[in-house]
Amino acid sequence: MNERGLSEDGTIAREGSLERVPAAFRPVVAAARARIGEVFGDGRLHSAYLYGSVPRGTATVGVSDLDLQLALRREPTARDRADASALEAELDRGRAEIDGVGILLSGVEELLGERGRYDGGFFVACLCTPLLGDDLGERLPRYRPSSLLARETNGDLALLLPRWRARAAEAASEADRTRLARGVARRVVRTGFTLVMPRWGGWTSDLAESAEIFGRHHPERADQMRAAAAVGRRPTGDPAVLRMLIDDLGPWLATTYTAAHGEKAPRAG
């Protein structure tokens, strides 16, 4: 992998590996592997993956969360979602090294299909580290930092903004606003990065680096994007921060993104 996250052939390299998992996080990763196999190993699970800072080797004890992607043989059901929610709580319980557990569920057909290949498929092939089962990455394309990839990964920001506004209006506490701000900030930074990704010609998942790359192409919004990256790492419940993200930077970014790459078609759910 070169300094822009690319393999020798110019395609995006897979960014994590089990070898990079910091020692402090290895016990919870081992527990996750074992419990996923026990809970979903009744024929439902095709494969399981780690993603985020833990397999990239950049996780911070007590701050980073444990992120997991499960590929199921069929589309997720209410039972699957309930089991995943219970497993999130179980893995998080009593573990000071992590700040929460998140489990994403997808069906294999969704990940390999035409509409998902450059969305969830890209996510699994390049941003996820195999943990259990047969790696779906071997059945997916080699991806380049293209406008198609930009559209299919983050071209739905305009659809998300109204939902975020509704959640911000309904937030009853600073803790609620802090959780919302973290998710919104991270998505805004990733969208800002993929806006300029084809011109930059590479891939990164690092929030600070993403903001800096964006800022080189859009200096008039650079300070806002740096602030968003900071909130993504250390969230705050300040209402002014949410307003900046949802009512100022977000709408500008959605309009600019659609003009550059087009709008991603809505997905079910």
From TrEMBL:
One of its GO terms (molecular function) is transferase activity. This is Nucleotidyltransferase domain-containing protein. Keywords: Transferase. InterPro entries: NT_sf (IPR043519).
